[in-house]
Amino acid sequence: MTISGTDWLASCSPTPADVRQQWADEGLAGIPAVAWAVVEADLMRSIDAMQILGRARKLGPVLAYPEADRAWWLVPHGPETLALDDLPQLTVHAKYWRLRCPPAHEYMHGRGWLEKPDGSGRLTDPVDLGAAFGPTSRLPVEAFG
Fold it and tell me: Could you tell me if 30 and 100 are in contact, meaning their C-beta atoms sit under 8 angstroms apart?
């Protein structure tokens, strides 16, 4: 049985009912980065990276806030993710940092998912994300296949 991206997001919180209630009240839900890590970047650079990663089908959820020129990538926790902090254009948020987000299927308070969570738990690989934001901004040929 597959679950929706919205249900998956809520299930990533220690209090899924609270998340659903925040959304029902038309508010953003603050989901702590426990099930995944959050990497922040500027929006336009993120869109460029999404095109690179999308060609290789290596794209996990990406939340955008155009008004602030920000995007947040969901990636797995681990040493590869922590290494992304070495790239000046990326900020790796600490575990438990709260991502204020709408449900997967809605645009709310100026935020929406550029790449929606699909319920599968798929995340962007931090090594691929680093390559997409790195100096050459290209994935190695092996990534395609």
Answer: yes
Interatomic CA distance for residues 74 and 66, integer angstroms = 17
Using CA atoms, how far apart are residues 25 and 108, in angstroms rounded to an integer?
A: 11
Of 76, 81, 50, residue with least CA distance to 64: 50
Distance CA 30, CA 52 (A): 29
Q: pLDDT tens for residues 1-37?
A: 579 999 999 999 999 999 999 999 999 999 999 999 9
Contacts of 30 (CB under 8 A, 6+ apart): 22, 98, 99, 100
Handedness of CA 100, 105, 107, 113 (dihedral sign): positive
Q: For residue 54, what pLDDT is reported?
A: 83
Interval 86-135: pLDDT, tens: 999 999 999 999 999 999 999 999 999 999 999 999 999 999 999 999 87
Helices (H), 30-140: 43-55, 79-83, 126-133
How remote is the C-alpha of 54 from its chain's centroid? 14
Which residues, including other chains, have CB under 8 Å from residue 11's CB and lie 6 or more apart? 3
